[in-house]
Amino acid sequence: MAGKKRGGCGLLVLVVVVALLGVGYYKAKHGSSTEPPSGADTGGGSGRYVALADSYTSAPRTGHAAGSPAGCDRSDNNYPHLVAAKLKPAQFADVSCSGATTADLTGSQSTHNGTNPPQLDAVAAATTLVTLGIGGNDVGFIALAPSCVTSHRDAAPCHDRLTTGGHDQLADRIDAVAGKVGAVLDRIHAKAPKARVVVVGYPTVLPDGDGCWPALPVGSGDVAYLRDALKHLDDVLQEKAKSHSAGYADTAGPSKGHDVCTGSDTRWIEGLVPTSAAAPLHPNARGEAGMATAVESVVS
User: Fold this and answer.
1) With 49 labelled, which of 6, 149, 214, 268 sits at a CA distance of 20 to 30 A?
2) Is 164 left (phi over 0), alpha (psi -120 to 50) or beta?
3) What average pLDDT is seen over the chain?
4) In angstroms, what CA-CA distances link 209 with 116, 219, 225?
5) Helix and strand tally (H, E) in the chain?
6) CA angle, 180 as apex, 240 and 103 as ends, to 5°?
7) What is d(CA 58, CA 95) in angstroms, rounded to the nearest whole number?
8) How far is it, in rounded angstroms, from Cα 277 to Cα 240?
9) Is the bond preceding 207 in cis, omega lying within 30 degrees of 0?
10) pLDDT tens readout for residues 110-131
């Protein structure tokens, strides 16, 4: 009886958190755009660095708000800002935005507070470096959360629902991202033929093994299923980078052992109830610093 009560509380916490926190996964809409950012003068060397991405890059709540619109929830200590501080380009434009999909790279994105112009508008012929972190919202991982939570440690409701009949719907969504990312990379190269382009993978969110139910009330079967799906997405991103003349920054490897189930002084990805400044299920400042190091190792 006590165990069932704990599981029920965990379920309630997850559903409430996911329902209320649109910060990282606000559903994009398309509307009118405004002028794209010209790029801040960093007072450093040469070149122009542009960061295109979603909330795993914008890093909601990890630092002070940076740029506009406010609804993109960019922090001034996210990995693009850290990379720019290291490389010191003459210009730097972080146009990452919470909730962004690949469609928001070419179309404007309405957020809960303002409209982000098409992210690719920030890329021009003078651009010398582009980082691209996108795809998670195309797959819709966060939308799965309410249907994955369970009061049974070994249950796998998401896996059972999404693989009915032996066909993996989540794998299909990830495979569909491949073509979209490839097309985006082609657009970047066309707009900035001299730019170095780096695709940034997603960090490790879930641990090896069965997870940490009920702190994260996802059954062991779905922990394995979602962990494998995230790896599949990273594999797709890495393959597209290789086949479209781009570098790849692996953040999954360095973040292994720093997942949501690790201690508050170790984790790079916060759990449902963050213990440091970050959005739930998003990188914290430690995670953004680790991602910055991964990017720097590719571009340096």
Assistant:
1) 268
2) beta
3) 87
4) 39, 11, 11
5) 11, 8
6) 140
7) 8
8) 33
9) no
10) 999 999 999 999 999 999 999 9
Q: What's the rounded Cα separation, in Å, for the pair 125 and 195?
A: 8
Q: If you compute the radius of gyration of the chain from its CA atoms, what whole number of angstroms results? A: 19
Q: Is the CATH number 3.40.50.1110 carried by domain 2-25+38-299?
A: yes
- Mean pLDDT within 75-95: 97
Report d(CA 125, CA 123) in Å as an integer: 7
Residue 152 to residue 131: CA distance in whole angstroms? 40
DSSP three-state, residue 247:
strand
DSSP symbols for 255-298: HTT-STTS-TTT-SB--SS-SSSS-TTSB-HHHHHHHHHHHHHH
Eight-class DSSP state of 152: S
pLDDT in tens, 178-209: 999 999 999 999 999 999 999 999 999 999 99
**DSSP state, residue 79:** H
**CA-to-CA separations, 213 to 11, 162, 251, in angstroms, rounded:** 11, 21, 25
Residue whose token pair is 């781009």: 246
Confidence of residue 6 (pLDDT cuts 50, 70, 90): very low
- For residues 24 and 195, give the distance between their C-alpha atoms in angstroms, rounded to a whole number: 29
Residue 91 clears pLDDT 80, i.e. is over it: yes
